[in-house]
Amino acid sequence: MLIDKDPYHCFMPYPPIAVPNGDGPLSGLRLAVKDIYDVAGYRTGNGNPLALAMSEVKDSTCPAAQALLDAGAAFVGKTHTDELAWSMYGMNAHFGYVQNPAAPGRITGGSSSGSAAAVAGGLADIAIGSDTGGSVRAPASFCGIWGLRPTHGRIPLDGVMELAPSYDTCGLFARDGETLLRAHSVLQSDDAPLPDIPRLLWPVEMMDQLGEAQRAVCDAGFAELGAAPLVGLYAQGVDTVYQTFLTTMGADAKKHIVPYIRQSGMPLVRGIDGRAAAAEALTEDEIAPACAARAAFTAHVDALLGTDGVILAPVVHDAPFRFDAPVEVFDDFRHVSQRLLCVAGLAGLPQVVFPAGKVDGAPYGLSLIGPRGSDLSLIRLAMTLQKDVE
What keywords tag this UniProt record (predicted)? Predict the structure, then answer.
């Protein structure tokens, strides 16, 4: 890393190799990069010690990071990730826990834990994360910062570890919307900008998954916007849609990350070993109907949004829990939260997260889900809607 101190354990302790940058719209901003992205002069560890040992020193930087460097951002280090980017807690058993600057003693969220903490703790101004099942969105909510899961396929993922390519995206973190917009404007354009007055939608089934305190943050954050009730977002029911997500993501992982795991013989920690085994066990009789259900869900949500619809969405169901929470909290949180997170992932839609309030003294973010290609105008809309958070 290229910074002097790392009080939040954000960064991988690589030898500090300077990375050239240019001069442009991101000049003056410090950039951190999740350690599943290749950066010239560094190894790529993917959150696993055997993967790190197998990695050669890279001679080129992945296009997403290179674009930010060329635009003037200054590289400050590679950040910790959950093992193989396949968890959402920021607690890597091999490399240690990332600390949450906004909520000491609570999880930072994964798998982009180091990137989120680096931004929240003021050690970087922008940071690259990845979002497959929620790995930008959940940490942004937990750390009280901004983050974007972009429209799927809009930002190239060459030189990046594959987990589940039909879900994998490159997203950024920032402490404010203006900086997030400034950085994402280097990576993408507004392919399908929102109209000046978008059609705001209140997702009844999403809100019904929240507790009283969490719902109060949503009510306060989106008060007086005149959003129209949206019923039927989960056309086949919440549990069925979630199962479609699990199966299709697992099928992708079976094809891409599981062979890498098995061929290397790498050991996996509890939780990730179970996910790899479940993915490996999927049959074509399970995968084919799930892929068809995903296509139908995507078409359904596209029709609901049209070109002007925006869903006012909770990010996850709760604030970050404590590191010493009972094991059942760890086992349950991922499944409950991904019933909310899976909507944008399944449909490949952009979702921007912004700070909105606190629950039990810890950050709790809100978000907007928009039509595909509306990424930059979705950030602009969030900037107009977001209220000051103490």
Answer: Transferase
